[in-house]
Amino acid sequence: MEHSLPTNANPDAPFPSSTPSSSTGSPSGDAAGADQTGPHGALFLVLGYLRLPELLAFQRVCRLFRDVIDGDSLLWQHIAVEPPLSGKLTDDALLKVTAKAEGKLKSLALLDCWKITDAGLLQVADRNPGVTKLYVPGCVYLSVDGVMKVVKRLFERGGNLKHLQLRGICNITKEHLDVLNSLLCKNNPRQISQPSFYSYWRIVSFNSDDGRPVDVDMCPKCKNVNLVFDCTRENCRMMKSRWRECRGCFFCIARCEECGGCIDFEESGEKAICLHLLCLQCWLRRPKCNMCNLPYCKWHANLFGSSSMSAGFICDQCRELESSSYHSASSNWETFA
Asked: What is the pLDDT of residues 219-247, one digit of tens each?
């Protein structure tokens, strides 16, 4: 949802009145007076639904919003840092943002925050022992030993960490995974795990609960700790022997980028413009480029806009090829002339 907030507004400026100073023509003088004293109370109900960038922008609208947002720790109990803000977040900035929760932080999601270190995350854990969800996918400066120290520190301080996402962190071993599962399941008995599908791995949600305390698992094929996916095909899931064969990590089982189903060796997956593999059924359903007759997968189609999701579009690669061919032909014609 787009917001046109004046992010460069002066925070010390008084809140502008939305009504004229005179109550002439107003159906109710009391209503006009209430509007002039400040924003409508319903605006404050919106604050709890704002993402972090929008909440930070709201702070700069006026002095009243700044004081209300800074003084309400409930607004900062669930913090999610996503791109493009991720690349700007440092340890000091993270400590300042999480300090607004006043030690009552419940969930923290750091998506691709490559400047966050083990020391910074440990300080956050020390100041917020009540964290129940910790997501650090793509935080490449974090080490598995640093994450282990954070989880152990939360456990020592009587915390109740329930969910942990570690994808993208290197050198996780089976021993690390066993220790994490034992700590997270000590106070929370492990539930029956729901299937983990490849098509949903990009989605990070605080409300999702698939019964897994840790998002990574040991691949039954290569025995490495990674994201392990189940097959979405009904015929594979109905046959237990087949289900075991097509369950594995991305490196061991080729999967359709669209539906997440396994692609057999006999079924050479159809390629998309973005070089992702698609099963034949999904490849036939996607709109194709007029020139190369290839589709985008749904993720890249959303990135490139609605033009790539309708029939009769021309992909960027073909546009560049057509443009270079035109310039080459023009230069050849000028040389000939």
From this structure: 988 999 998 888 877 766 565 555 567 88
CA–CA dist 10, 278 (Å, integer): 50
How far apart, in whole angstroms, are the C-alpha atoms of residue 6 and residue 110?
A: 26
Structure-derived torsion over alpha carbons of residues 104, 109, 110, 111, reported in degrees to the nearest 10: -170
Structure tokens at 309: 């999701």
Dig out the tokens for 245 from the structure.
């064969």
The residue type found at 212 is R
How many angstroms separate the CA atoms of 336 and 36, rounded? 75
| Confidence bin at 147 (pLDDT 50/70/90) | very high
Residue of 59, 61, 64, 99 lying closest to 79 (CA atoms): 99
Q: Which two tokens stand for residue 215?
A: 């998002």
pLDDT in tens, 283-314: 888 888 888 888 887 777 766 654 545 666 88
Q: Are 116 and 142 in contact (CB under 8 A)?
A: yes
CB atoms within 10 A of CB 186: 11
What whole-number distance in Å separates Cα of residue 30 and Cα of residue 37? 11
Give residue-wise pLDDT tens across range 177-192: 999 988 888 766 665 5
